[in-house]
Design brief:
The protein is mostly helical. The protein folds into two domains: about 110 residues, no CATH class; about 90 residues. It has eight helices and no strands. It is elongated, with a radius of gyration of 23 Å. The N terminus and C terminus are likely disordered.
Amino acid sequence: MKVANQQTGRLMTLALFALLVIAAPQTALAHCDTLNGPVVETARTALDKGDVTPLLKWVRADEEKGIQAAFQKTLEMRALGAEAKEFADMYFFETLVRIHRAGEGAPYTGLKPGAAIDPAVALADQALEDGSVDKLVKVLTNAMVNGIRERFAHAYENQKHADDSVSTGREFVESYVVFTHYVEGLHGLIKGNAAHHGEAVAATQAEHAH
């Protein structure tokens, strides 16, 4: 029975974490303001081919005309020479990413170098390229499981001596707060993003119904 409970607990943990990953699209897009992120990479290809269409998915419908106009102006400036091309491209990247971030409801603080990309997000991009999410799931699941276990072990050991003295009691309280806040943070993120995801789905369904 104990083994069965442990297995069930592990499965529940994995299921909760899967929901966290699935229901958090804004996290996956956090690297869209980097020079080698998907938005800028798409823009480079679009400018080289002279086709703005692939870029439009990164902005809201009401921003399409503005992006199309900026794209055309960039193509015209590119024809003036290498120096003008570099300046025009960067200005267009800045414009596109700023509008994309605004559509996400996220602040724009300028383009960042590729090194700013979170390793987990890089793995997410690689998963899409490879057509397999197994490595990403393994890395993130292990990180979460280890985080919970480490904080639990610390709090559990301190709990054994919590009443020995005031100082050991405070050590326990500190580790207890760290442990419970970590778990609460994970759970809150799951609930919050799941609710946000549900609202987005409901809004989309309502729009199609009309």
